[in-house]
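Ligand-bound model needed. magnesium ion.
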Amino acid sequence: MSAMESHAAPYVEAQQAQARELPGAGVAALDRSRSEALEILGERGLPSQRDEDWKYTSIKPITRSRFSPAVSGVDCSEDFIAGSAIENLDAWQLVFADGFHLPHRSKTNGLPEGVQVAGLAEALTRDPGPIVDRLGSAVGKMPHGFAAMNSAFVGDGALVEVAPGVQLEKPIELLFVSGCSGEGFLSLPRNLVILGEGSQCSIIERHISFGAERSLSNSLTEIILDKNATLNYCCAQDQAERTFHVGGLFARLAHSAKLKATTVTVGKAWVRNDARVDLDAEGAHANLDGAYLAFGRCHVDNHTHISHNAPECTSRECYKGVLGDRGHAVFHGRIVVQPNAQKTDSEQSNQNLLLSADAQIDTKPQLEIYADDVKCAHGATVGQMDEAALFYLVSRGVDRETARRMLTQAFAAEILETVTPLALQSYLASHVSGRLSPAVPPGAAA
Amino acid sequence: MLKISDLKVTVDGKAILNGLSLDVGPGEVHAIMGPNGSGKSTLANVIAGRDGYEVTSGSVSFMGNDLLSMAPEDRAREGVFLAFQYPVEIPGVANIALLKEGLNAARRHRGEPELDALDFLKLVREKLKLVEMKEEFLSRSVNEGFSGGEKKRNEIFQMAVLEPSLAVLDETDSGLDIDALKTVAGGVNALRSEDRSIILVTHYQRLLDYIVPDKVHVLAQGKIVRSGDKRLALDLEERGYGWIDTAADAATA
Ligand SMILES: Nc1ncnc2c1ncn2[C@@H]1O[C@H](COP(=O)(O)OP(=O)(O)O)[C@@H](O)[C@H]1O
Ligand SMILES: [Mg+2]
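Prediction:
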């Protein structure tokens, strides 16, 4: 058995031990998909840097010690949740402690007819049929061992289903708190978002840490948008130093569906995100954006993959990162234009601001174009603080530290300003500025 | 107000200013003219405190203080203002945010309370009129997408808000059409006062038809080779800069 398989072994065993108690166990299709995923996890193991997609991200910090899957029954205090709320946000909310839905902490009253916002486990127990069919459909081919692990354990998480034509006037917040079970626990939330034809909604997926406990959060969100559906989605990652987060976002868009997905990473955690968007029918449009901060010894990796599978789809992708201290960030942007995807219009950019000589960015676009009548643009930049701009501000009386912060915030603002609702935008902006203050010590020469 | 004595400045080891002396009294307007590359912007940048210039000898005193030992932000707070020859575009930083930060930093520096949002807005609105700028420029990013003329107006607008004691305007006239030039000159004239000195750096005499200087200096090869009143500017206009270099060579010899 190779080293990499052995890293997966404890998780395979843990799954086998609880398989019979997982929500919906006994439903043939679900049992089958779980055991298929388990097989992949066992065979492929957890990724290593020999995998091209993990070249710049070592999972050693995760495999150093094993994590135990958290078990249901864990709670998170009302005070903690209130204390970490997004100010002025009026939203329906589901709260999860180490991946388990806490119905008593959630607010779903007043949801319009045709809208289901519930815990996935509860739904799987109640009426698994319609869910099981769609679970895993946006993921398709399993990208790596972590996604396989999530799928093997699939149980709790959020289920959001919006009936055709329904437009939600308030956003839905899915709040995930990790580290509630104590030291060394693993959470495996699985979210399924299904928007019916012509429906519209906004979803905030927010990840935070309960305390300083070492925890691994392996989260996977599937998004299925039917014809003309519009989803405004933001994943806000603001976890603590000893949290490890592997996030998956897998979306499928039907005819003229629109997705705006923004991933904002402002915490101190070790983060790996995989986002995959399939534009499956004409007129589908995706805006896949991200903003990330990597300070201290943070590691933030964003792997994105947009696949144009049909003609006349558009995609816009912009990720911006600010790196300081010994921060390390990775951006890998893969765009695939399938042979039939004529008139594809796609733009990708990744821009990085390096505030220290020890910070590091590995950025790589990967365009695979198999159609001939397409417009695909991409660009990546890595730059330092603009000295001319800095001097301009300072010459107006602004001190150097404030000037650096203003310029850094301005850099990130291009992404943050596209985030709605505004309450979320202000929350993110204030967390970004909070992170920037200590990173830019007074008198720091550029 | 400003006293520069025998200032020598090098950039990357190359001598740019070669013993420049200049004395600007309170309320005076001095024009500094000279051919391209003579060191006008270097002088302006050294006064404002930009990095990359090495002062190898000489001194600059501003209201009795050693200007060269002050950080650029402190110079600004003490009342030094530079209108840049090439104002930088700063996407994501609103014009109004910069001015508020700058003005309040100066007020804190002087021990005055910060202006609240309302008083500040009242002040900037009033100053906008001076250079005939629309209010929408307040919320726009600093200089981003501004036309050449709008950038220059924005510099004068900032000057109006910050109310400096010494303003150095580096080729604020270049690239302006005649109407814009008149507006900008009108703004500057309105800001002339007994306790505010202005240095107009310019390549052309044209500006001086609208802002009449007390003194005119000719800079060539890094030093002032002629000083006089506004008639000197007219002379220059007629004879071009050719004879200046000859004069400068003679002075160096
Ligand atoms: N940052 C710099 N690096 C190298 N040379 C410079 C720099 N700034 C100015 N110079 C040189 O110094 C001389 C004077 O430039 P400058 O002060 O901009 O002149 P002016 O404003 O009168 O046109 C020129 O020869 C210019 O090339
Ligand atoms: Mg110049």
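Chain B has one domain: 2-252.
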